[in-house]
Amino acid sequence: MSTHAPAELDLAVASLIMVRPDEDRAEYEEQYESVAAVQDQLRELGIDIDLLSQPGVEVWEGSIETMGALYQLARMAAHLERGNDLAPIIADGPVLEEDLDRAVTDVWDELVPSRYRHLINLQGINSYYLPVDFADPVYLPFEDDNGEEDQAFFGSSVQLLRELSELAPQLIKAGVSPRSDAFRCLESLREAARQSVECGLPVIVW
After folding, report:
1. Statement: the pTM of the whole predicted model exceeds 0.90
2. In this predicted model, what pLDDT tens digit does every residue of 128-176 receive, in sequence order?
3. Which residues contact 19 (CB under 8 A, 6 or more apart)?
4. Cα separations (Å) of 122 from 28, 53, 60, 70?
5. 200 in helix, strand or coil?
6. Which of 89, 170, 193, 205 lies deepest, with the highest CB count within 10 Å?
């Protein structure tokens, strides 16, 4: 029996329309209408993508063990870009503290540019990477199950794959173990991005 704790973030490369019309016509039509509205919003922002043509298709599943691993990876990318030593971040481990790292939050708040912005801006659930190339992540408002206003994150899986392929060897050179949680997080995201680009389907993070 496995003793591993459940992953805190799940990944899938799949259609945003989760059912085919022959499986459940009413559910398909409801999801189609919702995804079509998202597609229209994205196109208004200059992101031209077809999110409707492969309903019910899923090609890959993966996970990220902890939010701490994702945050540590973001910290490593941000500090590496600034030319800082990663030893203190490696020593901290995959922890997510209340006092967040300014190197990361400055990218979140668009106070500083980053060549790793599609990675660093990923903060968890309600996030998607689209198999098209665009420079900056975008955010679309939506209403959650409780009727509260929230935002969905949309990054480019093309850009993410580029960022992670550049980042991986630099992390190894800087002393990050390929067996560390943060590096395994990188590998999961990189495989998700690769599958997304090859299959023309979004990465879904939840």
Report:
1. yes
2. 999 999 999 999 998 777 888 999 999 999 999 999 999 999 999 999 9
3. 27, 28, 31, 55, 56
4. 28, 26, 19, 8
5. coil
6. 193
